[in-house]
Specification:
This protein is α/β, with parallel strands linked by helices. Helices cover 41% and strands 10% of the residues.
């Protein structure tokens, strides 16, 4: 068991270290990147107001769980769609699939109004998946910069975060292989670092590394042969009405893990000991992880978040 634990941590270190490598040109040098993320952000002193912009991998339940983890005073709004790109959220002439359904709740707010308002301590942006298609066909880097510029014009300007998500569980290249490779290649090199401005007066955009947390947790739980109500990676994902596995959308257990990741990054606090019996956005009880699974999830989150400089969290 000790061997596999060490092996898992080594794999995690290699994955995160890959995020520092920026070899594709047109972006800042490794020295500039290292300097930009050398100093962690100050730890928030109180509850936050957060805006979430994205799609079904944000969803309604994850921000609601985050609010419960954060406790009294945490507030949030969102604009969501189905498979919606940053470009589609930005351009008023482009349709947002599922707009009426996904935003029919009390926490909806128009994204342009919200991001430019100065009402938020943090704005969390994410891109549609398949991420490489979004980058190729939806000018992801350009529209990420547009949203970032709008936020930075606000007074006061919020902290900006790029929420790294994941891809289909049955990806032919391998789910864990893609998670290991995509962080540096797509989320960092092709998106995050395109927004990095050397010597800028504002802090760089940070990362909420949900994909990396999923990979680290899955490696841990599968190495030990399963634990309580999580025996494999499939146990973090939804099932469709016909009983087949939904290979992209997380169930309550997976959503809880992603909410923990947001909490750790936004609040700079270890999520160890937080409640694991939460409610969905509609007030119904979410399926809870077993107590040992919850403990392993919380540990995995902090191991990733505290070791990855681009979260802005001090190690």
């Amino acid at each position: 068991m000790m061997f596999w634990t060490i092996l898992g941590l080594v794999s995690l270190a290699i994955t995160l270290a890959a995020g520092w490598v920026f070899l594709r040109g047109k972006g800042p040098s490794a020295e500039v990147v290292s300097a930009a993320y050398a100093t962690p952000l100050p730890t928030p002193e109180g509850p936050l107001r957060v805006f979430h912009l994205g799609h079904s991998l944000v969803g309604r339940d994850m921000p609601a769980m985050l609010a419960q983890l954060a406790g009294d005073g945490h507030r949030y709004e969102s604009q969501l769609g189905w498979g919606t790109s940053l470009k589609e959220h930005w351009e008023p002439t482009l349709p947002i699939n599922g707009f009426e359904t996904e935003n029919d709740h009390p926490h909806y707010r128009d994204a342009r109004e919200a991001v430019g308002s100065g009402d938020y301590d943090a704005v969390v942006l994410t891109e549609m998946v398949e991420i490489k298609d979004a980058i190729k066909y939806h000018n992801s880097a350009g529209y990420l910069r547009k949203w970032a510029a709008l936020a930075r014009q606000a007074d006061p300007a919020p902290r900006l975060y790029l929420y790294e998500s994941w891809h289909n569980l049955d990806d032919p290249k391998g789910w864990l292989v893609r998670l290991d490779a995509d962080l540096a290649q797509y989320w960092e090199d092709a998106l995050l670092l395109r927004d990095l401005e050397p010597d800028a007066p504002h802090p760089p955009m940070q990362v909420i590394p949900a994909g990396q947390v999923l990979a680290h947790f899955v490696r841990s739980v599968e190495t030990m042969g399963g634990l309580e109500n999580v025996q494999s990676r499939e146990d973090l994902f939804q099932h469709r009405d016909d009983g087949s596995l939904d290979t992209i959308h997380l169930n309550d257990l997976g959503v809880y893990l992603v909410a923990l990741t947001h909490y750790a990054v936004l609040y700079h606090r270890p999520p160890l000991g937080l409640s694991y019996r939460l409610q969905r956005a509609d007030g119904s009880a979410a399926v809870a992880p077993g107590p040992q699974v919850a403990k392993l999830m919380q540990k995995a989150v902090w191991e990733v978040v505290s070791r990855y400089p681009k979260t802005g969290v001090a190690p």
